[in-house]
User: Fold these one by one.
Assistant:
Number 1:
Amino acid sequence: MSTPERIGTIREAINEALHEEMTRDERVIIMGEDIGVAGGVFKVTAGLLDQFGPERVIDTPISEAGIVGLAVGAAMTGLRPIVEIMFNDFTTLASDQIVNQAAKLRYMTAGQTQIPLVIRTAMGAGRRAAAQHSQSLQAWYSHIPGLKVIMPSNPADAKGLLKSAIRDDNPVIFMEDKMTYNLKGPIPEGDYIVPLGEARTHRQGDAATIICTSSMLYPAQEAANTLANVGIEVEIIDPRCLSPLDDATLIRSAIKTGHVLIVDEGYQSYGVTAEIAARIQAKAFDYLDAPIYRLGAADVPVPFAPSLEDLTIPSAEKIVELVKELVA
Amino acid sequence: MAIEVVMPQLGLSMDSGQIVEWLKRTGDPIQPGDLLMSVESDKSTVEVEAVERGRLHIVTQPEDGAVPVGSVIAYLLADGEAPPVAAPATPVAASPMAPSREAVPIAEDHSANGREGEYRPSRPPSSPAARRRAAELGLDWQQATGTGPAGRIKERDILAMAAQPAAPVAGALATVKMTPVAERLARSAGIDPIELARRFPGQRLGRDEIETVIRESVRRARQTAAPETADTIPARSEPAGRLRSLIAERMAVSHLTNAPVTLTTEADATELVRLRATLKNDPQADVVPSYNALLAKLVARALVEHPIMNAYLDGDRIVYWETVNIGTAVDTERGLVVPVVRDVPAKSVQEISREMAELLPRAKAGKALPDELIGGTFTITNLGTYDIDAFTPIINGAECAILGVGRLVDKYVVIDGQPQVRTMMVLSLTFDHRLVDGGPAAAFLQRVKQFIETPYLWLV
Amino acid sequence: MDETKSTTAVVETRSDWPPELLLAMYERMVVIRRFEDTVYDVYSRGIMPGLAHLYTGMEAVAVGICMALNESDNITSTHRGHGHLLAKGGDPKRMFSELLGKSSGYNRGKGGSMHIVDMSLGILGANGIVGGGLGIATGAGLSAKVRHENRISVAFFGDGALNEGLFYEVANMASLWKLPVVYVMENNTYGEYTPADKSTAGSGPARAEAMGIPSRSADGNDVLAVYQAALWAVERARTGLGPSFIECETYRWRGHHMGDQGDTYGYRNAEEIDTWMRDCPIERFKAVLIAAEVAGEPDLAAIDRRVQQEIDEAVEFAKNAPYPESAEVYQHVYA
């Protein structure tokens, strides 16, 4: 049970996974804006250019559509590219390449080709970066058949899931939360793999289930402690992968507790929370003792002023309030 | 060979076309590229050219109306060739099969969306979990008092209702909707309001319904085996509930159809106790197996050696199960359930213990899944916590036998002529004498006793 | 800017090019012409689902370029892709099957006309998005460079796609990194229903040159002129000099798609079509071959008949083939 591990940040975990996979498979290349010489705006790709050289670590012009387009063509012809798109807000510029090309080529060609592509991109608000640099667009990509969408919440999962993503033969959107790159936790040494499509239960409880994605784990855990003080023991589950989604684990927990709150940093309306809620109500209907609650970011563009921005992001206080309502 | 000229597909959405005019006449010689006719599709009028050569023979005229794409409208014939005798293209009349292009008006949505004030449902708000629980307990959920938000009836409210004694008739009657006449009648006849609510859920009862119930109860009273007792001794009654009724029926069937014989013996459980104590005190041990888990494992091992005890009688055939699934009897507030651990010989004691640690409490709380309560091949029932030693358990369903386990009690026992304190446990095995005789059953029980006394025999 | 417009003299033809090559070119153009005429016919009978965008009249461009490529070289094509696919060696049987949505098609009927792929021939696909193939072809150039493979890629696109932003993004990177890519712009005068001069400021070659990509123009209806331009560009790519741009002027005889017939969209007139049809690339090449004594009328007619038979067989094959099974709906979504 004891894999050797060290304590490190999510940034270090991702960096380690990139180094290990690029060493393991020479077909893996990485491209993006400022990822080589500068080591990436969030410093996630530091050291890769020195170790693997400019042929495999490519600094590109500011051309999101072009970068992803090239990556699709390269993936079809023998490489396994990783593309970094600085902020997930900029994936809009590459939408055609992601949605109409990468996601569909395998299907449209009936399997004659495959696109082993990973798009790493940063989401999440709280950085005072304002509306065009603070979105969480995982719902859009989870909606598209042919894409896989991953959201790690801690260093170990970041390493294990990224390695799986790079080894997966499908286009994968790997969403990193820009606010938690510095967050520390155990990172297992060596070839640590987390399979795609498995949720992780961080806490067990009987009163209510909180399902939370990415950095929403942390306000959920804080809320759980507060709730435990008043005798409400909640269960916390991180799906880790939105597509494919581990329905079974989520539904089992909903049956067990009968009360469910889903927390995600996408906008409240038409988000990931809605899909998970729909799946749970379909399979756990007879065991629900309250309607399913969803907590997302406020349905407004993210404001700049810190006092305003903080109002729009799901918080531990709000989670506590909603769980208390659920079990009332 | 006549060449067919068909109505062409001139647009994505086109499925029929109307010939506006023929630009050539029947008998004209046609070369590829010659314009034959103009056609109106749903978008525009187009001139269509010939792709082959021949002498034109027109079949469909403009006045014949619109024809489906692909249907033959003319032929190009070789010199001297006669046209084929074929039916002309069927005009597309207002076909009853064609889907109407008009949008079907959507029926007005009368749900409560956004107009809650106008909609007054006749039932109280309730959660699915509450209604499910009520159905399991055989209760009318509408009779519960809701303590959730906005008076919602939640599962705990059903449980609370089940635990309560029945309300006095007068008070309870008020919760059933009845006409004034019906209410007077019910009150004077002493009819159980819960019975009424269950019989006619959600209805507003009138005189007829009450009279029906009165007539039936009179009929029943005349037929009842012990009418006097029912009338004269004060008693309270409540619905037995689905689970209880099920248990009642199964127990009766089991008892009536098989030939139960119970054997008892006393086993020295000292080693078993020591095993657990040692594990408990070891900081490195991750799992301390429960007695249930240990018993399941060793009984399964004994069953593998005595397969007749893991079998059942199916008419004139003996069926030996190929796996050993041990059911462990668990008391719930509603009655006995038997959650099952499957394929016990393949699992380690730790695995069984972990599985039971998760499953048994859940079964006790009534949250086991139906699949988890069936499929056992042998049952163990433990009344040790109630200070019971020996008893005569009833065989569960179609199984061959059931093992009853008594309490662990320290006693003086003579070993090699000396009195020693040992922890003893009585085992009671009820077996089906139709299937197996006393000797083999006793041998099996002896083996179980041996396994309890000497755990290393089955631990390796 | 290199403005060499290549034309072919009769004398050059006989001495410079081997007859097998010239006859192969002729045959490929005829295959495309007959294939597209058959598609027109079958589509008009209402048995071909979806859309069809015909390449009739532009044969010389696809053939002139593809004849300069190896089997392992990559091409990407457009929504008007049958010509490129056949020129690269695509199998008419599997192509026609795909157009009819049959399981014997290249994509088992799941892609249709605009998405046909044959990885064994290096065909990275026709594409339903205007300009969609540009990124893919450039990416294929990147992988060839990173993996040190002797493989170049050609992106076919039209005057319409020239105005998609993606072109500038990928061509810029191709030029920056000297990727082995050839950008072939087929200027057939119209982007859908809008003439090029109403949609494009400046010119294609000028835009390419602005990004450091040398360009050539060729008469798109002269297959040998296109071929010579192709050789120039392919040589540049293979020797690590980077990308090139070739503009070919040509014309499509048929509408933008099968629903664009006669005067439906009112954007061009019969006179213009007639003028271009008189400049038929196949007839022109036929005349050159005969004058250069590479082949006589009967030889060429024999090729025509053989090709027609091949196409007829392909159509029969496709018509008789089964549709894909229902279970296929959920296959191939993920690897």
Note: Chain B has three domains: 3-77, 123-225, 259-459.
Number 2:
Amino acid sequence: MKRNGAEMIVESLRREGVDIVFGYPGGAVIPIFDALYHSRDIRVILARHEQAAVHAADGYARATGKVGVCVATSGPGATNTVTGLATARLDSVPLICITGQVARHLIGNDVFQEADTVGITQPVTKHNYLVMSREELGTTLKRSFYIAGSGRPGPVVIDIPKDVLLESRDDEYPDSVELRGYKPAGRASAESLAELAAAIGAAQKPLFFIGGGVVMADASGALNKIIEATKIPAVTSLMGIGALDSAHPLNLGMLGMHGAVGANKALCACDLLVGLGARFDDRAVGDPAHFAPRAKIAHVDIDPTSIGRTMRADIQVVGDLRTVLDDLAERIGPQPDRAAWLEETAGFAEYGESVVEAAEARKPKVLPTPMQVMKAINAIIPEALIVTEVGQNQMWAAQYLRIEKPRRWLTSGGLGTMGYGFPAALGAQAAKPRDTVVVVAGDGSFQMNIQELATSVQEELPVIVVILNNGYLGMVRQWQELFFDKRYSAVCLDRHGGCPADCSAPKPGCSAHSPDFAAIAAAYGAAGYRASTLRELEETLTAALETRRACRRPSVIDCRIGREENVWPIVPPGKGNDHMLYEGVLV
Amino acid sequence: MKHVLSLLVENHHGVLSRIARLFDGRGYRLESLTTAPADEPGLNRITLVASGPAASIDKAAKQLEKLVDVIEVKVALEAAAVE
């Protein structure tokens, strides 16, 4: 069939089962939006910034497991996607980003809205293409979808000159592609599986370390079966949350810098640590010399370059968790009696909870505490699909929210991108219209993509944003408090002309409550609420649910919390996970 | 320490810069790099000499294998043997 390049893109989207495209038009991609103009089966969601369009496609991908798609124009459109691409790459999110490029004969001339998009995006993508002929467009699109979604998923950029978009050619979208240099891992070798099964059978104190790979591979069901069969306790990474119900008695919680006290204690005591689709990143590991010091380490991952990268791996299993866990289940024999280990880990968890509860009991509770905010969200919206921003809000959400299932916890783990949460939530909401999507935000990060309120209202994406508002860039302020002698430099969001230059503490009445988030929400046509007590928070959450139900409008709840609330515990940088401080005291 | 690597790659746009960047990003220096058409049309043979820590050459080789356009990686010889 004769079609131009832009029409070939739309054909590709149809054939790959894409139902939503997030994007922002511009001169070089007008042909793509033109081709989408009549396509009733593909919804086009106009973001208000290209970065947000990428995050939205990312949220769509994480919520569904499908490849997310976004479109941006040449030059600034393409450069604005960089943060979103890097976010998706570090968290292994399948994404296609189509960028327009200036016409072929103009490339390299520094013409209007020209940037070297493949050069700029090469380090932040799994792969990228510059399509220099209409002939290769179909194959390139097919390859890109395959690369983005297979193996360890990741973002792929396809940069297409405008004249390629407009050139007509009689060709078909290919049914399959061959890539000689690209062979994603499939099943693990029988030897490595046998070695792992034997190590598990021999261990007295085994511990699973669940990473985001379990979620990405949709292997949560298989993991649950293994845990039920073996009764081996587990810790999770930030990305692994949701793979195992956080209220499961064998789930000791998140490990690492702000991990659960019990999880880190178990890590230090175990004799076998089995990493499943976790990449042992620095925030999880801390000082490698003190990480799981008594344990043999097994590492299962689809990406061989992840194994042994930051931590030694005594047992290496390269394979797709989709099959590895099923294959492993078949090989795991009867397990030794580990009653003592289960008692020990239950003791760790109990101790950790007692530390948290004692600290919580000491708080004045005039303003809602972060834990109360999370418990209120869980109680009032138990089925919520949670998306977080980055910083303290993210860590509190990870610590206190119950997440029962995979793909209901979306967070920028690797890159730690402030401004990720709100647009990603819009993508998740578009993909899952029936789910109640809740964004746990900070007053800093929400302002990094606040313009997407326009998108959420226009597209009727009724997410509920809960801002934990402390008037600070809270995580940085916490580090300044703990490690920089309370020099609160450039972190106060309520600062005004009369403030001293060397402020090191909030004073009564100094808070300007700026900006007025509820008024901003209202100005965009969303519902805005304020809460400064637990009761008000509960009432506004209920009201936001009603707004969502009745008129499909998004809500923003501006919830004040204590200005100097901290995230505890913290493993100070450079220390091992055995060195946890809780309110400044070793626990 | 110098390492000689021999790569078989698809002759696609950007393949050289991907390979060069991978070494730059890991503290290696590329001492020399030659590329020539391989027997099979569309493929190139790249021979390169890189200097850097021995411990991470295997990691770099793994990363090279991960590149979509790289078909084969051989850590050939230590350069001393060919100099």
Note: The longest helix of chain A spans residues 339-362.
